Amino acid sequence: MYRINKNIFIALFLTFSFSMHVKCKSPSSHGPADNIDRATPSATFAIISDPHMLAPQLLSADPAAHPVSDRKLLAESHAIFSAITEKLLADPVDILLIPGDLTKDGERISHECVAEFLFKLESVGTKVFVIPGNHDINNPHSFTYATNTPTRTPTVSASEFVRIYSNFGYAEAIESDTTSLSYIAEPIDGIYILALDACRYNENTTKSIVGGKFSQETLIWIEDRLEEARNAGKVVIGMMHHGLIEHFTGQSMFFTDYLVKDWRDIGARFAEKGMTLVCTGHFHAQDIIKLDTDDGFLFDMETGSSITYPCPYRLMTLTDGITLNIDVRYVEEIDYDTGPLSFADYARKELYNAISTDLGPTLLGTFSFAPDAIEAIMPHLQVAVAAHFTGDEKMTEEIRTFIDSLKVNSGFYQKLMAQYLEQLYTDNPPPDNRLIINLLTGAVEQF
């Protein structure tokens, strides 16, 4: 889970008293291509985010030797990707987007394993497009766990990433950025896929850089492509790993690495240039947020990780270049021993265990919570985090009553926890999972 230090927890109390910076307003009157003949293509899409593949060859036969994880089902990652692949082979889409973190930690063999699945999907006519995440390139934490102790295994360079995924975006690119792995492709007449690389793998040394930023050269390249697309009346579907809009109050302050650097300015600039949708990942939560500016609008559609409960992937249908119908599917069954539990219950249990293991000692040590207080709080914290990862969060009366009791009858840190729980359930519009977006006006319908 995300680490919460003492200063952050105190600041959360102050920050969460303010409303979200970016809220969904009335539909913008600024279309992405005003006064220009706009293409009217139709297509179906799938989005798989943060699959974090750990190739089976890198795992020990002894589950006790598997890597300890925070919220990721790493040992199950191959079976999960296989299950999604089978669904998409049975009912193919036109375009599959994967916005980064294809592997656990950039293991070359894990990348090659992902590529094998992607070749299968392209064999039934699906056009696949990928972009790297912070885990994928020049990663110093690339290990095999098949030995008695974790041992380094080769990672990949940027050029090797392009070679492995040549058929999944890079060979199809009509233009590529020279200072990043960003590219633009037109898989269907009238639809541009603008894949944006803000990862900082060139700075990796003894640790992997989590945060993202665009160089000035890359920003100019992106804006030039957006201008060309608008002038040509193309529909632009953006894709990048890091978030482009703040998804909840305090994210930019306390989870800085999950938003691209200068996100507020860059989001506004992209909206002004006509980008209306960017598909992101990284935070492992299902959430959609809308930015409205004087010159346009932009939806940041974050997709949860396929290996973190509830293990989602998205399906979309674009009609006539305007209407985007967005739906969600969940991994329901995998070829892996989950014991007596269904896969959904197994994944939820693993997430709950990770929350307890990670945050329990923090509450006990750093914040001096009594053991009985932790025992009372932990089930509500587990449910709240799972609700945020699932999206379209709704607070039950039981949780509302518990939060109110923390506010009234507890000490300072318990009151902070009440604020934290409350904000996990604060879901700003639009809906996160099932909705229809008009890419011309920004209007939203829920279904």
Descriptive overview:
There is one protein chain. The protein is an alpha/beta fold and 447 residues long. It has 2 domains: 21-334 and 431-446, Purple Acid Phosphatase, chain A, domain 2, CATH 3.60.21; 343-424. The chain has 12 helices and 16 strands. It has helices at residues 6-15, 77-90, 108-122, 158-164, 166-170, 216-232, 251-254, 263-272, 343-365, 371-390, 397-409, 412-424; strands at 43-47, 95-98, 127-130, 143-144, 151-152, 175-176, 183-188, 191-196, 235-240, 277-280, 287-293, 296-302, 312-319, 323-330, 435-438, 444-446. A 7-stranded mixed beta sheet has the order 3-2-1-13-14-15-16. A 7-stranded mixed beta sheet has the order 6-7-8-9-10-12-11. It has a two-stranded antiparallel sheet with strand order 4-5. A hairpin with a 6-residue loop joins strand 6 (175-176) and strand 7. Helix 1 (6-15) packs across helix 12. The longest helix has 23 residues, at 343-365. The chain starts with 5 loop residues before the first helix and ends with a strand. 47% of the residues are buried. Residues 1-29 have low confidence and may be disordered.
What secondary-structure arrangement, pairings included, does this model have?
Layout: H1 6-15, E1 43-47, H2 77-90, E2 95-98, H3 108-122, E3 127-130, E4 143-144, E5 151-152, H4 158-164, H5 166-170, E6 175-176, E7 183-188, E8 191-196, H6 216-232, E9 235-240, H7 251-254, H8 263-272, E10 277-280, E11 287-293, E12 296-302, E13 312-319, E14 323-330, H9 343-365, H10 371-390, H11 397-409, H12 412-424, E15 435-438, E16 444-446
Parallel strand pairs: 1-2, 2-3, 8-9, 9-10, 10-12
Antiparallel strand pairs: 1-13, 4-5, 6-7, 7-8, 11-12, 13-14, 14-15, 15-16
